[in-house]
Design a protein that fits this description.
Number of helices: 9
Radius of gyration: 16 Å
Number of strands: 6
Order of helices and strands: HEEHHHEHEHHEEHH
Shape: globular
Strand content: 5-15%
Oligomer: single chain
Helix content: 40-55%
Strand order of the largest sheet: 1-3-2-4-6-5
Length: about 200
């Protein structure tokens, strides 16, 4: 059903309507075992008309409780890093995860879980049609890119993505919370450089 969506030449109002319909389908999903332990389906947040899309790994405890992605400590850090470049969550970003339900104990989602949830993510990408997709962490990278290198080697690089978008791997902010040094060459400084590059791309 999700693959039958015609996403060409949609008005913003129509786009929101279809996204809400997909969200409703997702909220009833029982395709994998994650539905048994979820509190809420965590579908998305932000602006459906944004040029920038962020794809994370999976909801955590705070996200599962509130039904919104990236609202815990790592999400707050990500918001601050974006805000440093004048990028706001409410206006400039559409944000979601590879899977929409929290895996128990915040474990990494399995390949089967990601595959069963992929239709929702594909629908989001096809409807948003962003100019840049930030792949936030290794799980998002593995879901969207056929690369063997680790995220440290490819972060900050642009890759061709769906619908003409560019995809950029970035560190997951949960990783940055463990390494908060802002020295030259540190993960935090590299993340800031990557977001600056995104801002420059969007400002062309």
């Amino acid at each position: 059903m999700l693959t039958d969506i015609n996403t060409d030449n949609l008005t913003p109002k129509k786009k929101v309507k279809i996204l809400n319909e997909v969200k409703e389908i997702c909220s009833q999903c029982k395709a994998c075992g994650l539905h048994k332990t979820r509190t809420n389906v965590v579908f998305s947040d932000g602006n459906p008309s944004a040029k920038l899309m962020i794809i994370g790994e999976a909801p955590g405890k705070n996200e599962d409780e509130r039904g919104l992605p990236f609202v815990g400590r790592s999400g707050q850090l990500l918001e601050r890093l974006l805000a440093n470049e004048g990028i706001t969550r409410a206006n400039d970003v559409y944000i979601c995860n590879t899977v929409k339900c929290r895996p128990p104990e915040n474990r990494v989602p399995t390949n089967e879980e990601k595959e069963l949830c992929k239709g929702y993510l594909d629908a989001q990408i096809s409807l948003i049609k962003p100019e840049i997709i930030l792949l936030c962490g290794a799980t998002a990278v593995q879901s969207m890119l056929d690369v063997k290198k680790g995220i440290t080697s490819i972060r900050g690089e642009f890759f061709d993505g769906p619908f003409g978008a560019k995809m950029m791997p970035i560190f997951h902010p949960a990783y940055l919370l463990r390494y908060q040094s802002d020295k030259e060459g540190s993960p935090m400084r590299l993340m800031k450089d990557d977001i600056k590059k995104v801002k420059e791309f969007l400002s062309r």
